[in-house]
Amino acid sequence: MKYLPTARLDRFLEDAAKLRKIYVPVDGEQNRAAYRLWMPGTVVSKALNTTRSAKDFFFPQTENLVGFRRTEKKLEIVDPRRETEDFAVFGVRACDARSFSILDKVFLSDPADTYYANRRAHGLVLSVSCRRPAETCFCTAFGIDPSAPEGDVTFTDDGEGYYVRANSEKGEAFLESLSGVFDEADEAGEKEARAQTKRIADRLPLGTLPLEKFGGGKTKDLFDRPEWSSLSESCIGCGTCTFVCPTCQCYDIRDFDTGREVRRFRCWDSCMYSDFTKMAGGNPRLTQKERFRQRFMHKLVYFPENNGGEFGCVGCGRCLRACPIGMNIVKVLKTLAEDGNES
Ligand code: SF4
Ligand code: SF4
Questions:
Q1: Which residue of 18, 100, 157, 235 has the smallest Cβ count within 10 Å?
Q2: Looking at 155, 175, 201, which one is the last position of a domain?
Q3: What is the tens place of the pLDDT at every residue in 67-78?
Q4: In a domain, 343, yes or no
Q5: How far, in Å, CA of 328 to CA of 212, rounded?
Q6: In this structure, are 220 and 129 located in the same domain?
Q7: Residue-level pLDDT at 70
Q8: Helices (H) and strands (E) in the chain, counts
Q9: Has residue 82 got a pLDDT over 80?
Q10: Distance from the CA of 315 to the center of ligand 1, in angstroms?
């Protein structure tokens, strides 16, 4: 077992940055943390979560997929992909680390999305445990342990440093190449640090959400619940909840004529948008209520139905903080879990 004192974190990052690009959370305006490329002098944020998740590194907000160039009567197809450079993301919390298991099920199932797969192959997830989970966190409701995050390498925070453990071959090789920076430690310290976090996590106010009413097979019980009307009444369809969410994965594909070539790109889309399901033959989701219902039914019923019971939410709490009307998945869960008869 390896140990990294906090005072040596900069040296670890400096050594790691010689091997591959390394991104770390950095504090920004209004206490909003964001991932930035580490450079000497970069101060790592102590915030529990970044405003946008580490999803962006593997499924970026926009990316070019292919280009088309016409010269006389020939059509040239341009592949814009280059070998993705190796990179690492440090500071991924347990909720976001689990989000990759959800995204992998979407993007890596046959036929695999080669753009995403390429980044997953080249990217290392270096996760950090949450010493004191926040009151808005509810990852534990979805069976996630904030004291033992997944990822290629786990850094367990004990307040003075990190117990460092590799969880994958990639992670193992990465640690081997940096071995000079770590101390050796026994596992008892890691166990105690985890136990301290667990004691706090067990008391989180949102840690026990009523999930038994949700999951695969519940469409009939939930789809026509009258509460969807009042829950969605104030939703302005801004899509913020989908863009901050580490597990949302809808995208649109469009063509852009640069004058010299046509570029086909994809960009994040949102099921909360009125034109999301618009087709030549019409739009099957005409009202905001239908769009709102789709987002939550997907996370709480359809996704687990098709993925062995795994919910499409990791309880990161971002939508609790970001929604301009104060609506979020916790309110939806609690409202629908009641035996309501609102009409
Ligand atoms: S639905 Fe909300 S709490 Fe759940 S993963 Fe998405 S942003 Fe986080
Ligand atoms: S962030 Fe709030 S208002 Fe905006 S689309 Fe999501 S639920 Fe609706």
A1: 18
A2: 201
A3: 999 888 899 999
A4: no
A5: 18
A6: no
A7: 87
A8: 13, 12
A9: no
A10: 5
C-alpha torsion angle, residues 110, 116, 119, 121 (rounded to 10): -10
78 lies in the same domain as 59: yes
The protein residue with its alpha carbon nearest to ligand 1, atom 5, reads 313
Pocket test residue of 234, 240, 243, 313 for ligand 2, highest count of atoms within 8 A of CB: 240
Residue 282 per-residue DSSP state: B
* CA 93 – CA 126 distance, rounded (Å): 9
**Cα 149 off chain centre by:** 13
Domain boundary among 155, 183, 201: 201
Instruction: Provide the β-strand partners of residue 27.
Output: 33
Q: What count of residues does the chain have? A: 343
Q: Is the pLDDT of residue 334 over 80?
A: yes
Is there a single domain that holds both residue 258 and residue 186? no
Q: How far is the CA of 293 from the centre of ligand 1 (A)?
A: 15
pLDDT of 342 reads 45
Question: 297 lies in which domain range?
Answer: 211-337
Residue 216, token pair as written in the block: 């695969």
Of all residues in the chain, the percent with pLDDT exceeding 90 is 87
Which residue has 């919910």 as its token pair? 311
Assess whether the C-beta atom of 144 lies below 6 angstroms from ligand 1: no
Q: What's the rounded mean pLDDT across residues 101-113?
A: 97
How many independent structural domains does the chain possess?
A: 2
- Express each pLDDT in 118-164 by its tens digit: 999 999 999 999 999 988 899 999 999 999 999 999 999 999 999 99
